[in-house]
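Try this one yourself first.
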């Protein structure tokens, strides 16, 4: 893999005390939900190169990635080396395929949360993953939100909580948390280094964290000149099995 200088930063702790504060003057939960809904409509596809840094129980590594996203449910990721792609992952609403050119290995399975986790190490549903890669908090609906300070929050089934923190001056979400019943963040994301695009402000830096005891993982993505809302051929999200390669179920990958 090609090393890079991207450093996986630590996302600040959830602003739980702020949630008990009154909303900033002039702001309501409906207004913040409206910002989320507007941005959800603004960013529908993405094409970019990215420097990626991963840190987890397996160690730390950095690599270059070609990223294609077509929301709501299509992704293509190519891990690059000086000699070309060393891994090509395509995901659509039905199937996830991983092709390892050097090993001549073709892995196929259903595009489930479990199978996505086998490749990413981060437990997201497919539509949550496409939102995050497109620079959006992975919130799936607009119901149940309350406002505290400059954040939205809502209760989750099982006693947890979801939080979205906003930069009110620029009217953009900058952090997202999914808390467990103990109040600790199980999943979180930070959005930084926003730049102007034809669709609006887009974060070139996205950091993801998944905390599960000794299995804590972080993934830092730095996009290089991202192109948003571009047309992407649907065929790029499917991979036919090349000739003379070994095929195996995706469950062959260790979790």
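Now uncover the answer:
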């Amino acid at each position: 893999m090609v090393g890079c200088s991207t450093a996986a930063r630590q996302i600040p702790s959830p602003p739980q005390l702020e949630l008990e504060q009154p909303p900033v003057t002039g702001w309501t939960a409906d207004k913040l939900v409206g910002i989320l809904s507007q941005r959800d409509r603004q960013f529908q596809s993405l094409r970019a190169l990215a420097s990626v840094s991963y840190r987890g129980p397996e160690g730390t590594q950095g690599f270059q990635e070609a990223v294609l996203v077509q929301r709501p449910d299509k992704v293509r990721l190519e891990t690059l080396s000086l000699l070309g792609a060393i891994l090509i992952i395509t995901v659509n609403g039905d199937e996830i395929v991983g092709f390892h050119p050097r090993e001549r290995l073709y892995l196929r399975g259903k595009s489930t949360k479990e199978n996505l986790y086998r490749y990413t190490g981060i437990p997201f549903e497919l539509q949550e993953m496409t939102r995050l890669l497109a620079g959006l908090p992975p919130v799936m609906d607009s119901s149940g939100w309350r406002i505290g300070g400059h954040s939205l929050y809502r209760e989750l089934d099982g006693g947890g909580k979801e939080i979205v923190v906003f930069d009110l001056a620029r009217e953009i979400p900058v952090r997202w948390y999914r808390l467990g019943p103990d109040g600790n963040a199980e999943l979180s994301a930070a959005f930084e280094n926003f730049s102007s695009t034809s669709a609006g402000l887009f974060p070139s830096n996205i950091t993801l964290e998944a905390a599960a005891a000794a299995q804590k993982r972080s993934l830092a993505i730095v996009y290089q000149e991202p192109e948003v809302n571009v047309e992407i051929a649907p065929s790029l999200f499917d991979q036919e099995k090349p000739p003379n390669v070994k095929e195996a179920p995706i469950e062959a990958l260790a979790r």
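Discussion: The longest helix spans residues 29-42. The chain has a mean pLDDT of 91.
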